[in-house]
Predict the 3D structure of the following.
Amino acid sequence: MTNPAPDPRSVTGKPLTIAETVDVLVVGAGPAGLAAAIGAAAHGFGVLLVDENPVPFRTMGDEVPLHYGQGMAASARNRNAMMEAFVASEPRIAEAFEAGIDVRLGTACWALYANGPALGWLPGLVAGLADEERSLLVQARHVILACGRRDMGLGFPGWEKPGVMGATAALGLATRYGAIGPRKLVILGSTTEALTTALALREAGVTIAAIVEQASEPVGDTDLLAELRADGTEILAGHVVREALGRDRVEAAAVAMLDAQGRPAGTERAIACDGIVLGVGTTPVVDLIDAAGGKVAFQPERGGYAPVLDAGQRTSLANVHAVGDCAGLWAAKTRDRAIAEAEAARAVAALGLDAAGDMAAAPPAPEYDVSAYRLAWVRASVIEARAECHVCQCEEVTAREILEIRPPRYLDWRDERRNDRSLAALLGEGPPNPDQVKRLTRAGMGPCQGRRCREQVAALLALGAAQPLSAIPLAGYRAPVRPLPLALTADVPEAPGQVEHWDTWFGMHAQWRPFWEVPALYTVAGNDAAGPVASE
């Protein structure tokens, strides 16, 4: 029995316009990505290395790819200076150029497509790339993802003010670009990653006013903690930020002590600062892997949701590897880049060049319970907030609206009379799914693509359902995983057969009529949507 011909209006079977073909595509020019690219080139592979940094100033304002929180200094507007600083901050970039690698900075990978159970007609691995001027499709025999990390957001009144930023963004602005605006910071979180960030910011000339930790004792490396304390940084365990104070931007952080139940209690005090850094949790960047259909699982020893890998850093997608922070996060890797570079060496060995590379040692057990720690932060900061704040800033959705699955306010839900608004009553038994909540509330649908709120939404659902974070499914990613201007999407040509049917894609009739057919008295209800469609 032969397979039926595909629908002529479907994308299935339509040829793709591939602009370039490469042996190895490496996404990310950090320590792991550079080591992978240089290693692959040394074995004779043609290598294309892309990194979206330095991202344009406007893109930073959209909180992409990190939570910059409008903490960029004016020098970040100088594109040439940012590019020069980025190259100068990592000596191996020059080494990559000298090795003959095609290095493209300021180029984002907005999609990775791979054949799988639901897709079988691609010519191979296909990646969508875009810079400020064009977008194109590249086919690669192998892909090594070194996409890095990003920070968990944390809501509290005033956290939308300029100056509230993620730890990774603050660190990059200060140490790679010399373009961080705030000069006196309060840092939330005492993990080793947060303390390492605090020390690096201090070395870059930024004053660390205080480390605020909701747990009764700091959870990170004691030596790092002692070093900060000796330099005059106040360590406030058992505390939480109640509000970011200031008129137009952060001017102080109001903090309060927590009682034995983790609730704010007692007198508040204001700590003068012009920035608040969110260091309560870092997570691997898995958007490309997840959107392509790769297997991702909650792995506390790797910092949360991370790709499932074998000993050669292979993902579940054929010929796709993950290295560096996007392959997993733990304290030792944060402090020693050699661990990420060793992952890159294993990935290069697994390209088929060697029989076997060095076996990866399993990440150590976490220093603390990742799930309980993050849930405690959300409970103390968001659930116990003294005033409602927008957990999803883009769509202006509060914690209450998420937990009660309230539809968007523009639908006027205030007269809704359902008595039982529990998650079980609204979503059914079993762990609540963030994707379902996103469709019902719009939380996570904004321009930042959930980068500030997705971990908070998962934590709220876990708290509401009395489940650990590991029970809450990962909110799915879809391409493009980076915002793309519509003008750039037009750069990727479509097959003539697809263009022929663009206005009746999959047989869905247009809901408009060409001007030459519109009668004098016209209503949409009287529109004939069943007849032939003419294209203007």
Observations:
- The longest helix spans residues 337-353.
- The two ends are 41 Å apart (CA to CA).
